[in-house]
Amino acid sequence: MVTTKEPVLGFTEALVRLAHLVQQVFEDVAKEHDLTPQQAQLLCLLIDGPVGMTELTRALRLEKSSLTGLVDRAEKRGLVARTRDSHDRRACRIALTPDGERLGALAHDGMADRLETLAAGLPREQRDLLGSAIAGILAEHTATTGHPRPPADR
Amino acid sequence: MVTTKEPVLGFTEALVRLAHLVQQVFEDVAKEHDLTPQQAQLLCLLIDGPVGMTELTRALRLEKSSLTGLVDRAEKRGLVARTRDSHDRRACRIALTPDGERLGALAHDGMADRLETLAAGLPREQRDLLGSAIAGILAEHTATTGHPRPPADR
DNA sequence: TATTGTTATACTCTATAACTATA
DNA sequence: TATAGTTATAGAGTATAACAATA
Questions:
Q1: Which Pfam families match (chains A, B) (predicted)?
Q2: What is the DSSP-derived secondary structure letter of residue A49?
Q3: Which residues, 6+ apart, have CB-to-CB distance to B94 below 8 Å?
Q4: What kind of architecture, by CATH, is found in domain A13-118?
């Protein structure tokens, strides 16, 4: 008998392991494109258009000084550029450079590919159920904290 | 009408957001006990008993030198202790101190509490389905990579 | 005064390369 | 020779506190 003897993961343990797995995949994908996970996350966050520093600190849950450093390094690598805000001379908006746009798209798509592969073994039905269960958890969290868009990746 | 108009998350996006949420919760719980996430993870990994450095590098996916530093700092804080391996004089085993055991348990339980709360809104049935869907994904990953126990948290 | 962002400083975390000691 | 672990070094990521400029 070589049956897989599932140890029947506890629910929370299953969640934690899944999160670590996704995190690993994210790190691997970032590394493939010579990005740190934080840089990859920043790029993914900027795909839809320039974002201000303050909004980024909320999305990334970083102190503003930490974000300054992250943006500094990304800018030095030519991935993003600071553009002045036309309505508030104190503020600036962070935009992707063509290079950053390219890498951001690669990272995002690479992530999607990997996760699709990982979930490929799941029957369609179970997959949908997983999707809606997750949506339920995210909704619960949103309701509790009031953050309409937690970190998210785009 | 204030209906929640779910944007119908894509499957992979749902996974990524869930992972970030769990990661945030983990960071918050660690911080509550004045631990870095890495220290908390280390403590959780040692709850079942002492573990050797080499095994820890695999569990945490770190280079050995990175682990040396992590253990150094945890040891300096009195959370863990290096004990000599009785069968191999090159090797050592990392064990929790009473303080580390206490904090590890608090972090682990705090994590479980938070995630339970988060999933409290899910109907029993959906929760079970989520658990088994995750088990399926983890099994797929295990089958692909051959790692019997990815990172995991205990 | 409050907000936006940067600078200065100090840690933690991580990796690569070279090293020591034991197997 | 190979393995277990440490040391040296460098860079990324993060936070706190103090600051400058604008609102």
A1: MarR_2 (PF12802)
A2: S
A3: B42, B46, B50, B51, B52, B53, B56, B71, B80, B81, B82, B83
A4: Orthogonal Bundle (1.10)
Which chain B residues are within 8 Å of A24, Cβ to Cβ? 61, 150-151
The string of pLDDT tens digits covering residues A56-83 is 999 999 999 999 999 999 999 999 999 9
A interface test, pick of B29, B130, B149 with most A CB neighbours within 10 Å: B130
CA distance B55 to A62: 32
Find the closest chain A residue to B62 by CA distance.
A24
Confidence label for A8 from pLDDT (cuts 50, 70 and 90): low
Beta-ladder partners of A52: A93
Task: Report residue B142's pLDDT band, with 50, 70 and 90 as the boundaries.
Answer: confident
Question: Shortest CB distance from B131 goes to which of A11, A112, A140?
Answer: A11
Rounded Cα distance, B43 and B107, in Å: 9
Q: Which of residues 96-115 of A touch B (CB under 8 A)?
A: 111-112, 115
Q: How far is the CA of B104 from the C1' of D7 (A)?
A: 29
CA distance A8 to B131: 9
Tokens of B78: 């009195």
Output the pLDDT for position A147: 63
Domain residue spans of chain A: 13-118
Q: In the structure, what pLDDT confidence band is assigned to residue A23 with cuts at 50, 70 and 90?
A: very high
Contacts for A43 with CB less than 8 Å, ≥ 6 apart: A35, A74, A79, A80, A96, A100, A103, A104, A107
* Cβ separation A134–B26 shorter than 8 A: no
Q: Does A64 touch chain B (CB under 8 A)?
A: no
- Answer yes or no: do A118 and B139 touch at CB < 8 A: no
CATH number 1.10.10.10 given to B12-143: yes
